[in-house]
Design a protein that fits this description.
Blueprint lengths: L1 E4 L12 E3 L2 E9 L5 E8 L6 H15 L2 E2 L3 E5 L5 H13 L3 E4 L4 E3 L2 H7 L3 E3 L2 E4 L13 H18 L4 H9 L6 E2 L2 H6 L7 H15 L3 H15 L17 H4 L22 E11 L5 E3 L2 E2 L6 E10 L3 E9 L7 E2 L4 E2 L8 E3 L5 E9 L3 E7 L7 E9 L2 E10 L1
Parallel strand pairs: 1-17, 4-5, 4-6, 6-7, 7-9, 8-10, 14-23
Antiparallel strand pairs: 1-21, 2-3, 3-4, 10-11, 12-13, 12-15, 15-21, 16-20, 16-22, 17-18, 19-20, 22-23
């Protein structure tokens, strides 16, 4: 087995404050109770192509320096825009455990709602509008059915991954693209746009219970008391009840006072954070075309790969990549002509039976990892497993079959 290419990452360098396209990232000049610098992150105006790149650059800087996002939320004020960019931004928000917030006098419509839905907690105080996708490019008449259905399925899959209610998914497919359905207050409440996802709530609840030394039931009771403090007369039938819920930071036990943000850190230690939230594996042909598949043709020179996006903290992140074959083979580098079993190369360890190699990867915290291997004539048919190991724990497995 030959190492096809080493890890690919992009180094990103940011100014302390910047405004580019419609992604606004700013350092606010004060710290939270744990001494972390507080920053604001906002999407304002039309969502344009490549905004997702700028957004990920901001996240890279935040994660590298362990900054605190104000209100733990991405602030949204947008009429919509490019769906692809919105979905990519949404995936980054969910993967980084961030909430989303539309302030009372702001708007989030069309593609912006895809970003709003991605928040691990959502506060939709402002206007929220939904309609079908618009197609700016020309579509051949014979391809309209397949094109529209493909985008509908892609949208449905994304929204389902983001825990969207069936009603929101239905609205994205049913409201004409020349019209706009603005959600009523009760609809926003009933569709889950004023609270945390069940998964994130439990994630934070487990950590908060241990960190604060309190029963989980008592922590939940504190949220109920907080709601009562905000609006003692509120019930689910009260017209303005949705504006009287605890903030997302409070719902996630981060104690946000909504002004200077002196909340606490409820999460693992930064050096212990490494979460893979989007991944792919497949093959690469001689023309460098990538195909997502688990089946690898048993041909000399055939390459296969994995890639993933991750949430991590710190200037660098280190993990191990362990490749396991069905039987012994040779392990080497195509670029350097090195046999890893014969040469003691730092970061490369071949097992005594030569079925396994473990590679240590250390890279800048950018958020995307990629690696690939190429078959040699010695490589056996059968299963292949690549394990991603962090802090001695397997956090991801990629399974293939050489056939």
């Amino acid at each position: 087995m030959t190492l096809y290419m080493k890890i690919i990452v992009n180094l990103l360098f940011l100014l302390p404050n910047f405004l580019f396209a419609e992604v606004i990232y700013e350092k606010l000049g004060f710290t939270d109770i744990d001494g972390r610098q507080v920053v604001s992150l906002k999407i304002d105006g039309d969502i344009e192509l490549d905004d997702e790149i700028i957004f990920d650059e901001a996240l890279a800087d935040i994660n590298q320096n362990n900054y605190r996002v104000q209100f733990d939320s991405v602030i949204l004020n947008s009429p919509g825009g490019v769906i692809f960019s919105a979905i990519q931004i949404g995936k980054s928000i969910r993967g980084n455990h961030l909430s989303t917030w539309v302030m009372p006098h702001d708007e989030c419509s069309s593609a912006c709602v895809l970003i709003l839905q991605a928040g691990v907690c959502k506060m939709a105080n402002g206007e929220v509008g939904i309609h079908r996708a618009k197609y700016q490019e020309d579509i051949p008449l014979q391809e309209i059915k397949n094109t529209v259905r493909y985008h509908e399925i892609s949208m449905e899959d994304y929204l389902a991954d983001m825990d969207a209610s069936p009603q929101i998914i239905w609205l994205f497919n049913s409201i004409p693209n020349w019209d706009m359905k603005y959600l009523q207050n009760a609809e926003k409440r009933n569709y889950g746009l004023f609270g945390a996802t069940a998964e994130e709530m439990q994630y934070r609840l487990e950590i908060a219970s241990k960190k604060f030394g309190q029963y989980k039931g008592d922590l939940l009771a504190q949220l109920s008391d907080r709601r009562y403090d905000i609006y003692p007369e509120a019930t689910w039938h009260s017209e303005d009840y949705l504006y009287a819920t605890p903030s997302c930071s409070e719902q996630l036990f981060l104690e946000d006072n909504m002004t200077d943000h002196v909340g606490v850190s409820i999460g693992p230690k930064p050096e212990d954070i490494f979460e893979i939230y989007e991944s792919e594996r497949g093959t690469i042909d001689e023309n460098e075309n990538y195909t997502a598949t688990e089946k690898i043709p048993h041909e000399e020179g055939q390459s296969y790969y994995y890639s993933f996006r991750y949430y991590a903290k710190g200037k660098v992140v280190a993990y191990k990549e362990r490749v396991i074959l069905a039987s012994p083979t040779s392990w080497g580098s195509e670029d350097d002509g090195i046999d890893y079993a014969e040469n003691k190369i730092p970061g490369f360890v071949v097992s005594d039976d030569k079925t396994t190699i473990t590679v240590t990867r250390t890279m800048p915290n950018e958020g995307v990892a990629f690696s690939a291997w190429t078959l040699t004539k010695e490589d056996p048919k059968g299963p292949v497993t690549i394990e991603i190991i962090f802090n001695d724990q397997v956090v991801k497995r990629f399974n293939y079959v050489i056939e």
